[in-house]
Structures are given as structure tokens and as C-alpha cells.
Design the sequence.
């Protein structure tokens, strides 16, 4: 693929809720495509590790990105269709299941992490779960994301839940510490029990087009992860152009990243739909060339249930139903969960609670 353009609308995604069962029976997509959310859905196949490839600059060096077309395409995602009532509730439950519930603050404590993990286990109040008909299979979030020193308390608090612990590493958020220290940080987090590692790339290597060094570093980080999955944070707000975003995405996947992630949440500009669309197109191109399925994680600035719906629609339209599962799609957020819970309470009761009624994660 030599150019990213605005595609024609995909007929299969014209109506996110068309054909779903009425009433309180929730279905994220039409029954022909997925099991209703009110019954225990079949677990998706495990997301196998991405083996990566050799560095192949010819896959991305000539890429051209039509900025205006990308922006037009991104603008249609939240405006061309409407997802309402039971369909909206079902999509919001799906979004909740894909959240990486996160705390990355300088004043994090084991107590705060334990509270976060309790919310991860039961992200919705029991009365809302009952009203939605999900009592037999209460939803949980996709993962809990913390600093390396908080992995131990998180693993202990989540024991038996099946919820993985993700740890940021490699000099988060700047990624500018010496490579041996970054690799040691990965190994420490894995030894503490982290099942996923969110690394940050050195953005200077993208800005100077030093693809060999970027590839070698991410490859070394991949090896340091051992059995843990690697999510590569590109820091897209620092990369300046969508061409750089596409190229960095491709190099990270070639080096063995299991996920590509937009942002640390600390940049001036974090996840946006145009940037996410560009990364998703790179992910799709990589999959067409290699047959590998790579995950995607937007993070930073996503706060509302409306944001969650926009990114779910992006994944459904660009990649298909398979990328609506937490082994291939995550949302890096914390405050978003409170708004999703508020919207689901409105669906169940017909009344909006004050925002303060739902505790932040």
C-alpha cells in the first residue's frame, strides 16, 4: 500500500445495531456475528505472540498519507450513524471489557492500586449488572495498568480474577534512559508478575528516521519481555506527521510488538481519531503482508462513553468484529469507566445520576 486515502463506506458497518434482539438482551453486534452479551460468550482464541520480521524499510519508506482524506474519514466515524438504547448499552459493555484501567501517578500507593483492582473486578454496581441481565457473567475490565513497583500489589489483588496486570516500563514516559536500564525495568516487571509490558519508544529515532536503531531496541525489549506481551507506545503527539506515525507503527510490528499504542497520556496531544486511523491502516497492511494479528490501544484523553463508541466503531469498520475483543483491542483510560457506568445506569433506570455519584476508578 503506497497511499492512505478515504475509503468507501463499508456496507457491513452501516448500522452498528441492526438486527439485534430487542429488550434488555444485549448484543454488541447482530447475533449472526457474536453471542449475546447476556450469556457467557465463547472466549476468543488466545492472541498468539507476534514473531516479527526482518526490518524491511521498503514496506513503508514510500508511504504517502493524505491528511485531509484521513481527517474526513475520521470525522464520519461518530456522525454517520447513531447507536441507541439497547444497542448502545451493549457496545458500552463491550468497551468496558476492553479498558486497561490505569493509574500512573507519582503518588500511587499499594492501597490505591488495591482499590483500582477492586473496581477492575466489579466495574459496574451490582444493581446495574442485575438490570442489564448480566448477573450470570458479570463483565470485568481488560487489564490493570500500573508502574513496575506497583505490579506486585496489583497481581496479589487480582489473584483468581483472570484480569492481567500491565506495567509501563523503559523509562516511561520519555523513554530516554539508557537501554540496559530500560531492559532491566522490563525484566523486573515481568518477575513481579506482569503479563503485559507497555514500553515507550525513543521518539528521536523516528524523527531522525533511524529505523535500524529503533528496530533493534524494540526487538531487545521484546526479548526481555519473555512470555509477557509487548505493547509499543509510539508517543504519536511527538512524531509530528502521520507519515512518521505509520512508519513507526510498521517498525514496531516488525520488531515483534504484539500491540501498538498511541500515547503515554503525558504528551500535549494524545490519542486522536486521525492518528488512530493511520495506525490501524498500518496494522492492517502488516497483517496482509504477514498474516499476523496485531492489537491496538488508544490511550490518553479518552474520557467519555462517546469516545469509547467512536473507537469501537473505528475498529469494527476498519478491521472487523475480531478486533472488538480485549486480546486485540484495549482502551487506556480510568475516568472513562465512570461515564460508561453512568450511561448504563441511565439505560437501566431511565434516570441520569450526577457525575459524582459514580466513583472514579
Sequence:
Amino acid at each position: 500500500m503506497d497511499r492512505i486515502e478515504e475509503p468507501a463506506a463499508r456496507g457491513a458497518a452501516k448500522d452498528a445495531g441492526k438486527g439485534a434482539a430487542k429488550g434488555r438482551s444485549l448484543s454488541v453486534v447482530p447475533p449472526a456475528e457474536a453471542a449475546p452479551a447476556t450469556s457467557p460468550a465463547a472466549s476468543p482464541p488466545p492472541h498468539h505472540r507476534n514473531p516479527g520480521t526482518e526490518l524491511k524499510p521498503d514496506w513503508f519508506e514510500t508511504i504517502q498519507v493524505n491528511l485531509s482524506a484521513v481527517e474526513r474519514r475520521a470525522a464520519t466515524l461518530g456522525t454517520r450513524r447513531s447507536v441507541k438504547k439497547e444497542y448502545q448499552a451493549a457496545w458500552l459493555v463491550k468497551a468496558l471489557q476492553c479498558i486497561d484501567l490505569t493509574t500512573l501517578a507519582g503518588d500511587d500507593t499499594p492501597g490505591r492500586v488495591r482499590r483500582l483492582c477492586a473496581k477492575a473486578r466489579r466495574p459496574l454496581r451490582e444493581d446495574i449488572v442485575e438490570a442489564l441481565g448480566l448477573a450470570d457473567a458479570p463483565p470485568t475490565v481488560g487489564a490493570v495498568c500500573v508502574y513496575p513497583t506497583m505490579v506486585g500489589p496489583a497481581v496479589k489483588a487480582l489473584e483468581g480474577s483472570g484480569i492481567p496486570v500491565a506495567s509501563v516500563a523503559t523509562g516511561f514516559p520519555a523513554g530516554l534512559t539508557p537501554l540496559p536500564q530500560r531492559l532491566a525495568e522490563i525484566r523486573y516487571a515481568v518477575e513481579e508478575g506482569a503479563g503485559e509490558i507497555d514500553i515507550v519508544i525513543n521518539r528521536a529515532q523516528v524523527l531522525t528516521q533511524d529505523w535500524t536503531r529503533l528496530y533493534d531496541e524494540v526487538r531487545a525489549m521484546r526479548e526481555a519481555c519473555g512470555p509477557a506481551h509487548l505493547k509499543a507506545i509510539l508517543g504519536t503527539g511527538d512524531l509530528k506527521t502521520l507519515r512518521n506515525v505509520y512508519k513507526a507503527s510498521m517498525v514496531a510490528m516488525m520488531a515483534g510488538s504484539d500491540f501498538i499504542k498511541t500515547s503515554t497520556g503525558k504528551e500535549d496531544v494524545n490519542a486522536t481519531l486521525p492518528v488512530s486511523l493511520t495506525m490501524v491502516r498500518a496494522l492492517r497492511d502488516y497483517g496482509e503482508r504477514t498474516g499476523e494479528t496485531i492489537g491496538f490501544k488508544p490511550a490518553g484523553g479518552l474520557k467519555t462513553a462517546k469516545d469509547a463508541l467512536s473507537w469501537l466503531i473505528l475498529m469494527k469498520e476498519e478491521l472487523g468484529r475480531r478486533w472488538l475483543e480485549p486480546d486485540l483491542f484495549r482502551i487506556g483510560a480510568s475516568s472513562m469507566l465512570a461515564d460508561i457506568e453512568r450511561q448504563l445506569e441511565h439505560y437501566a433506570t431511565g434516570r441520569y445520576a450526577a457525575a459524582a455519584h459514580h466513583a472514579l476508578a
